[in-house]
Amino acid sequence: MVEGSILELEKIIIETIDDVFIDLPTRNFAEFMIILARRKTGENKIRVLFEEYDSDGSGSVQKEEIKKWLDQHGKPVSKAQAGKISDAMDVSGDDRISYEEFLTMIAARLLVLNLQ
Q: Which positions fall inside the EF-hand domain (predicted)?
């Protein structure tokens, strides 16, 4: 995905993120990310959320980082559950979640929620 496309997708997400209804509590990871992103401020709130997961600063998120972040924030998951979350986002199959894959997951869930 080229940088211009990423910025455009970020803009669309920010413009629509508050317009969807999410029934709580949710067990859907994408919906959980949308709820957390709503609590952030500024234009880069999706990037900030992604960087919270990227604890090693590598520019991508691995299964272990997902598990660690969720465990630390009161949403403990097993290694297998963290693996399923990661696998669902990892379109490229490289065992890493890129920012583009993270954005795509959120955008796809927003689209589904907007159609409901």
A: 41-76
